Each structure stands twice: as structure tokens, then as C-alpha cells.
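Is 6-O-phosphono-beta-D-fructofuranose placement plausible here? Inputs below.
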Amino acid sequence: MKRRIGILTGGGDAPGLNAVIRAVALTARNKYGWEVVGIREGFDGLMHGASTVPLPKGRVRDLLARGGTILGAVNRGNPFSHTVIAPDGSEQVVDVSDQALQRIHDLDLDALVAAGGDGTMAIAQSLVAMGAKIVGVPKTIDNDLAMTDVTFGFDTAILTATEALDKLQTTAESHHRIMIMEVMGRDAGWIALYSGIAGGADAILIPEIPFDIDKVAAKMETTRIGRRGYGLVVVAEGAAMLGGDQHYYIGDKGSAAGRLGGVGYLVGNLLADKLDADVRVTVLGHLQRGGQPTPRDRLLATQFGHAAVDLIAQEKWGYMVALRGNDIVPVLMTEAIRHLKAVDPAGDMVRMARDLGISFGT
Ligand code: F6P
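Reply from A.M.:
I modeled the complex. C-alpha cells:
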């Protein structure tokens, strides 16, 4: 049966989204003879009637190595809690999910691929419960989506972070400094953990393990006055001190306008106070989200996009493609959004890091 399918990219972008779009478009056309259209600006665009983008072969051919998403990304726009301004000027949150469903119908889409993180999967699953025909593709540089071993975008982010730490290492060594590098990771410390181990950090601070700044200072003092003569700390933006809160640099904590970040400066200032040492702080920020995907992310994104089209052929609505071991398998979106995939503080990777002498500030 000839079908017309749509694809949207929800939430923040991640390297590899364009490779997913390419794989979906090529698989749909070559394997099934279906037409594919892109929906701009994620679910926000779907609700607001944003224009669609035809995705013939010629449009997607050269997308493999391109960062970002040609469809645009917004990390707002939940049809189930949409903010509108009431006639009296007040803000009201309303459910406009029926508009999103109507739009899928108006666009004459037989099915939709939603590529995104936990927020996107939660919206997609709720629409599926209302009858929408959606399959999911897991994306996030944070690697915190459950039910898949890894999400695409993560490999590129840890390459960026590891290369940055390598660069900080050489200048730290020259100046006998303590270098703090803050990386992304709101609720999960995967980027900090993997880049910290790969880049030879002395301390790694992650949201899953609240840290004691005196323990971090003690570790830094040992490494700085010891044979190494300098110190490297990687801190995830969501890390917090024992008994303390996460650090926000814009807006109120937890508010929509709030931006998590700045814990690197907090740690840097405290270490500078406690130690007779030169301390410098680097915040990597969105460098981790930009640029070309690594070959591994391109490959994973391609496998995911290809498998998502097969899920549509099998009419497995409400399923998300996932990597389990070496296999690409379907998993229920409801399972993927049940809980966040956090670093296990007692897991192999953390235990190995501790055995190597890396401090977690505990
Ligand atoms: O989900 C990925 C992520 O990179 C988080 O680690 C980070 O806090 C967030 O996106 C920042 O997104 P934005 O600045 O686009 O709101």
C-alpha cells in the first residue's frame, strides 16, 4: 500500500538528526515506495500549522554528515499543555492535542516518525493513546533515555568533551593549574563520566553522586602538589553539592525560563578559596550539541531511521526503536519514558573510575 509518512524532530537538536531524516526518507522510498514529508519545528510546528518540507532523494542525499536538523528544533510545544494568553491577559495552560491530531489528518499522513528525547516520546505516546500512528526514534546527547543502550548524539558529545579535556590538560600541565570543565547533563552524568575517564580527569562530579567540596579539594591538593602538578575536574551541569541544589544561571530554579549551568564556576570559586592554587573554568555548553556527527552516531542514526520505517510497515504504533547489545529492537514508548536512564553510582564504570583513582567527591 502506498503511504505518505511524516517525520519531525522534537526537543533540542543533536548531531545525527539529519542522518535519521535521510535514512527514513531513503528507506521509505527505496524499500516501500512511500512518500516522506518533514514537519518543521517539532510538535510546536505541528500544532501551529508550520509548513512541511518534501523529502525526495535529492533533498536528503547529502545530509549524513550535517549537524543540527534541517527541520528545525524547538524545546517547547507540548500539545497537552499549551500556554495561551486569555482575553484578560493572563496566561492559561490548555490541552490542544486534538488540534495536533487534526493536523496529522489534514496533512494526509498515514504515520509519523518522532525523533526526540523523553519529552518527545511522552507527547508521542499520549497522541498514540488518542489514536495517532506514531513510532519513535531516541535522540539526546545526554544519553539519559531508558530502554536503549545509547542514543545518537552522545558519541559526538563525548568526542567534543574529550578533545576539550585533552586541550585543557596541556595548558593545565604548563601552568600547574586546576582546570574545571563543565559539560551538559541535566539529570544524568553520562557525558561527564565518559569524557572524564577518556580524558584522564582527576575528579568527575555528576548529578547521581552529590559531592562534598572538601573531598574534591583534598583530591586536587594531592594531585597538584604531587608528581602530576595539576588537576582536571569534569563537572556535569546538573551536579550538586551534598545537601545543596542544582545551579541555575538564568531565571528561577526549575522555571521554564531557568537555564541550568554555572556549577563549574561554583566549584572553581570554592576550590580557589580552599587551595593555594590557580583555578580556571571552562563551560563547553552548546559546543557539545553542534557540528558533524561522528561516524558512530551517523551509523546509529541511520540504523534507527531505517528500523523506524520498518516499524511503520509493521504498524507498531507506540513503539520506539532502540539499541540493545548489537541489535536494533522495538521497545514500548511507555517503557522508555517510565524513568530516566541515570548513571548507576554502584555500576561497573563508576567502580572502575574509582579504582583508577578518580574522585567523585565522596
Ligand atoms: O537535553 C540536552 C541538553 O543538552 C541538556 O543537557 C541541556 O541542559 C539542555 O539540552 C540545554 O538545552 P537548550 O539550551 O537548548 O534549552
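Short version: Residues 156 and 294 are 5 Å apart (CA to CA).
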